[in-house]
Amino acid sequence: MGSTRLPGKTLKLLKDKPLIMQVINRLKLIKNCTIVLITSDTSKDDILETWCKDNDILCFRGSENNVLERYYLASKYYKADNILRATGDNPLIEPYFANELLEKHITFKADYSSNKSEIGSNLPDGLGIEIFTFNSLETSMSKSSQEHHFEHVNEYILENKSLFRIYKDSNIGGLIDKSEIRLTVDTPEDFSVVENIFTKKDFTLNISYKKLLELV
Length: 216
Hints:
By secondary structure, this protein is α/β, with parallel strands linked by helices.
């Protein structure tokens, strides 16, 4: 809730539902996953915990700045073997490609897997996810020594690739690179773009990636 560029964005209404609910509704299309909203323990996020209770959503709270610890403790609490991370400002997260990545992550026995645009995939920014094993988070917690390792969940892993089995799905979504398209919500302008897509008459919750690109 403490976003500086778009304050309160998590509960900002997007087609009559809070943005975070639109994220969760997309995540519900991923198979065999328990959805937990992991947020900070600061007072500004009390409203999120209340919202979760009112909507039967699991909620875990931890350090605002030590995001790695927050994920590690949440994973430990819920006894998770694999943790699929989707950020709360991506209401167009791609569930079908997330299913594919999860299958490959398990098949290849990866410690960390990603199809996010930042690792060089062809997906638009805001559609990708990343997956951690609990052991990879535990290793990151025990070995991290620099501040940025704790601010970002994946930093230690990506800086120490030799210690982990990493799978990157770089061509997911096709061979045409669409990473220049921005569908995450950080600013009022981002929100307007996403809102415009959600209000198109052809938009549905389970919209295909191909159809989504047509609307974009």
